[in-house]
């Protein structure tokens, strides 16, 4: 009598299950890696767009300005406008105002609050309301010629952005044309 069994043995089933598990693991690993790369590239792209927009906007306003009228480190600490600063020393700032007219209320104001940068026009210490961008971690201002902030003609602005624990840095050198 012939023994004609057409089923799988337990060992064949375990081997097939093991191979299937390894293949599924490799496929899932591939998709997870691609998803992380996509998120990283998407974050960098968004931060690059934010940086370009913010720095272009600030550059246009700074070029129209005569001088820096206010530079704050935080809500309590303000930098002296008349103190002579050496070249290249970076001042961390969360608020900066640029005077553009004759009146004391003619200032372009940029203020970082809750990782957002806001813009406004008016008194040098107003709380701006127009949101320019997000993900701002720090903003640094440095002079490229030894002078006081009130007499500065050229400055460098460096902004550090952060999103999902990824940093992006952008900087711009700006000349104040109306100075």
Provide an overview of this structure:
- This protein has one domain.
- It has a 5-stranded antiparallel beta sheet with strand order 1-4-5-6-7, with helices on one face. Strands 3-8-10-11 form a 4-stranded antiparallel beta sheet, covered by helices on one side.
- The mean pLDDT is 91.
- Helix content is 30%, strand content 36%.
- It is an alpha+beta fold and 179 residues long.
- It starts with 9 loop residues before the first helix and ends with a strand.
Question: How is this structure best summarized?
Answer:
By secondary structure, the chain is α+β, with helices and mostly antiparallel strands.
